[in-house]
Amino acid sequence: EGSSFYYPLNLLSFMELIKRLLAMGYPAHWFSNLLANLLSGNFPSARLGIKAFLPELEFAVAAYKPILPFLVTAPTVQLSNFKKYSVELPLFGNDPTALSLLLSGLFFTPSALKLENPYNVSILDYDSNTKKATFWFKSTLMAELKLKKWLVALIRSDIRIITKPVLIENVREE
What we know:
alpha+beta
């Protein structure tokens, strides 16, 4: 029998960690500066690319913005910039343990021989009965990816295996 799973190891966990550290007395400006740098792409390490996670980080910050004790000034960090979407995606064969794996949604260009400049979504809900993944995504970026005919698939984040991708045109607004 199928069931619905929510994966807590995502950027919302990062926001919960910030909340906890603030409650422990860490200075709010540390996190304000960190989030400002991450959201602007000015991350100190050139080796660490965060572009794939930026839309999801923007969503996580927008969701937590009302309860953060500091100002987040990035203009793209507004909940109104995000919409809820869903798409039917196959899982990994008939493996009954597959739903306990670290799953993410992965958006990528169909012309890439390797995954270059993908977007990752780990804040998702997957229902094994309907094989439907539900997630929040920046509406302007979704429109752009649809125009470019990108693909979307589930990925096992631990070993980097993806399911059979589907065209992004199959993604529907909830």
